[in-house]
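Sequence design from tokenized structure. All designs in this work follow the same two-part layout: the structure record, then the generated sequence. An example of the structure record is given first.
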């Protein structure tokens, strides 16, 4: 099997540290579906230098909400130490389907943000926060505007998300875009 390109993959976790002496690692999951993603027989990918490497999952158990993973070919603590701090990814095509009106954060990055009055605000460059308190970090369209704008990612403000058109339509309360400007 040919490993997919790193840029066409999405993060699902990061190796926090080794665990025990048998080559297991503790993963900080970056997925809403850790039980489905980190399961025996599954695969995750890391990048080593410029090479994308597939890692097959042999065993998994959860400890304090984090997966403790045994990977094929990693049987000692010294072998597992080489993975510490590495991001784990999967091909975008292997993502779990989401319910209607929910989105993967990486899908929102690059979307144009426009108001309900069709005024261009800028482009989403990141999604920050935690579920229920996420906000879009938007780079203003006008290059003379300084800083970035934080827009709460809530239905009352982000009234339409069209991933096919790559657009997020917002209906911000008066003054929100000016008030939530960062780095000015």
């Amino acid at each position: 099997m040919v490993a997919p390109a790193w840029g066409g993959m999405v993060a699902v976790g990061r190796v926090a540290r080794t665990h025990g002496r048998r080559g297991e690692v503790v993963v900080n999951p970056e997925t809403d579906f850790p039980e489905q993603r980190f399961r025996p027989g599954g695969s995750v990918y890391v990048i080593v230098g410029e090479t994308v490497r597939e890692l097959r999952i042999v065993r998994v158990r959860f400890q304090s909400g984090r997966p403790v993973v045994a990977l094929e070919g990693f049987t000692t603590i010294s072998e597992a130490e080489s993975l510490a701090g590495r991001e784990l990814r999967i091909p975008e095509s292997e993502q779990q389907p989401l319910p209607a009106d929910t989105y993967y954060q990486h899908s929102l990055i690059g979307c144009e943000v426009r108001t309900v009055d069709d005024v261009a605000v800028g482009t989403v460059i990141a999604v920050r926060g935690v579920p229920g308190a996420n906000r879009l970090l938007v780079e203003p369209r006008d290059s003379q505007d300084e800083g970035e704008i934080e827009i709460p990612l809530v239905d009352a403000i982000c009234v339409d998300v069209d991933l096919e058109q790559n657009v997020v339509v917002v209906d911000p309360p008066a003054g929100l875009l000016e008030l939530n400007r960062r780095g000015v």
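The radius of gyration is 20 Å. We note this feature because it recurs in several other targets discussed in the main text.
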